[in-house]
Amino acid sequence: MQMPQDSFPTDWSPPPIEFLNKSKKAPPTRRPLEDLEKDPPDPDQKVELASLEELFWNMAGPSQQAGTPEISSGGSECYVNNLDYLLQEKREQALEQEWEQLLQQEHPRLESSAYDDDDDMDREAVLMPEQRMLVEKFSVSLQVISPVHPGETVFLPRRHPLPCFLDSSSLKPHSQLEELFLRSSLPGQLSFLHNGLLSNLYLHAADCPRPLLRWLFQLLTWPPETSSRAFGLLWDLSIDRVFRQPDENMHLWCPSLQEVKEVFRSLGAYNPALYPQGPFQHSSRVLESEASLGCWEPQDPPQEVALDIKLSYIYRFLILCLLVQPTSYTDAGILDLMELLCRAGLDVGLRLLPKTDLQQLLLLLLENIQEWPGKLQPLCYALSWVSDHHHNLLALVQFFLDVTPRGRQLRSQLSLMVIARMLGQQESLPLSGEKTQLALLSQLLSLMRPSSLRQCLGAETLPSSLGQQSKASTELDHKICYLCHSLLTLAGVVVSSQDITPDQWGELQLLCMQLDRHISTHIRESPQAMHRTKLKDLATQTYIRWQDLLAHCQPQGQYFSPWKDI
Questions:
Q1: What does the pLDDT read at residue 238?
Q2: What domain count does the chain have?
Q3: What is the per-residue pLDDT for 141?
Q4: Do residues 101 and 191 share a domain?
Q5: Cα angle 296, 298, 303; round to 5
Q6: I need a labelling partner for 376 at 20 to 30 A (CA). Which of 41, 97, 364, 502 fits?
Q7: What's the confidence (pLDDT) of residue 466?
Q8: Does residue 199 sit in the same domain as residue 314?
Q9: Please, which residues bridge with residue 529 across strands?
Q10: Do residue 54 and residue 160 come from a single domain?
């Protein structure tokens, strides 16, 4: 059988390559004379090529000239052709650069307009009207309903702590070490605290002086290095006093309401209602004292974390005082203190930090109110004016945990009062009348429809230009959905805080019907408005939750009885 001619070869060895053979060392070949005669170069090129070739061979050493490989077979191609190609490429590049310079001189904005990514007007001008409509149709808005409240500016930044001087005028030393401590300056007294000498002086003493406890309480506003030691000593001294006294004569030093306010003021708190004279202004002497005290503290943590640590120390000590002595504050003092604490909890720097100590303190203050529920209405009214933003007020309601009967009552009443205030019905709605909270919520729910909120928020005139009107309308729609989202969340708090009884089944059923009629059906979802989708989801979840409560509550026979007359 004869094999075809194009079969695979039996010899797979690579073809011989002459220029890899190191034994052959020949000078570089030149073009034959016949080729030069057939294609003679022009005189200028001939002189330039000759000079370049001569320069090339003069720069190369004798060994390099002898070892230059032969890169072509037959000697038809050599370095002369390669230099010719490089020269031609160089001429073309120079010609291109000349054309670019001419174009830039004639059209100076050509390059900037082609590469300017920040010029939105030029990009929009390129789009045709139908293309622009298509882009607007499938564009997605970046405005969303924030899950975190905006917060309030409560604590102003403070670079150095305020000096806390110990009032030792009424104290008599019992030892030389105590006399040295009382006569020392503030840095010297702080060194006693940092070195642990104050524990040796007062921890197991028969009676601890109150000016020292007040001084330690003021030091809780200092940076964590000092405030942690002050809190540890203050806590140990208080616990030691509790265990040394009999139960019937239990007495513990507790800071007064004014002292608590001064401590918050030292932290930088500014409240126009409490301090009408304005933020605390430093004098030149105080600034010098603060600068001299900066050497006692290492590098501080971030301001928000340091503030949270100091507030945690204050909250824990107040919790101890209220547990040992529930009657430390009057009802009026408790209401003022709760308002102050709620304002502090809304600080913009504390929004993302946990508030466990604050929540426990608020619950304890709530349980220590003597005239309950007589103080519920004024307390809710005062707390509803702590902030002007609806999301901040929603966060304030969430400060109170749903774990005690008083906490549930406060959450429900405060949520209802915040809804009434945001809708402008706080004065006209009888929140303390005979109607139940579900019946009052039913009256307010009909005012929470987006069209009603649009009339309330869109009272101002829109801009004259068409583009600004579209932008203002989008912002107004976002504000409406944002407000409705907070109000609907508060409405869910009102219902969840109630113990649904069979006689309230009809009221809850009416709430479900109004929720579906006034809110859910008025929300039109759109890819350009994701905040509407979030509001629609909340309305759906609220409706399902209320329907679940209806399913677990046995209604009275007057609401439905299809077989009653049979």
A1: 92
A2: 3
A3: 61
A4: no
A5: 110
A6: 502
A7: 61
A8: yes
A9: 526
A10: no
Q: Which residue has the tokens 């994701």?
A: 530
* pLDDT tens figures, 56-80: 455 444 444 444 444 444 444 444 4
> DSSP per residue over 420-470, as a string?
HHHTT-TTTS-TTSSS-HHHHHHHHHGGGSHHHHHHHHTTSPPPSSHHHHH
Q: Can you give the C-alpha Rg of the chain in angstroms?
A: 42
Per DSSP, what are the bridge partners of residue 152?
347
Q: Quick check: is 14 in a domain?
A: no
pLDDT for the residue numbered 72? 42
Neighbouring-strand partners of residue 526: 529
Give the contacts of 333 (CB within 8 A, at least 6 positions apart).
Answer: 257
Count helices and strands (H / E) in the chain: 25, 0
Range of the domain at 513: 401-457+473-556
The pLDDT value given to residue 11: 54
First vs last Cα of the chain: how many Å apart? Answer: 107
Residue 459 has what pLDDT? 55
Q: Which residue has the tokens 């009884």?
A: 501
Q: Which residues of 14-48 are buried (b: 16+ CB within 10 A; e: fewer)?
A: eeeeeeeeeeeeeebbeeeeeeeeeeeeeeeeeee
Residue 101: how many CB atoms within 10 A of its CB?
A: 10
**For 522, which DSSP code?**
G
Nearest to 353 by CA among 507, 113, 520, 151: 151
> 392: closest CA among 371, 418, 431?
418
Alpha-carbon distance of 406 to 419, in angstroms, equals: 20
DSSP 8-state secondary structure symbol assigned to residue 14: P
Query: How far apart, in whole angstroms, are the C-alpha atoms of residue 140 and residue 526?
Result: 9
Q: Which of 248, 254, 249 shows the shortest CA–CA distance to 234? A: 254
Pure H helices in 374-430:
376-383, 390-397, 405-422
Q: Are residues 100 and 202 in the same domain?
A: no
135: in domain: no
Same domain, 479 and 529: yes
How many Å apart are CA 222 and CA 225, to the nearest integer?
Answer: 8
The backbone region for 41, taken as left when phi is positive above 0, alpha when psi lies in -120 to 50, beta otherwise, is beta
Instruction: Give the type of residue at 292.
Output: S
Q: Which of 352, 370, 388 delimits the end of a domain?
A: 370
Amino acid of residue 423? L
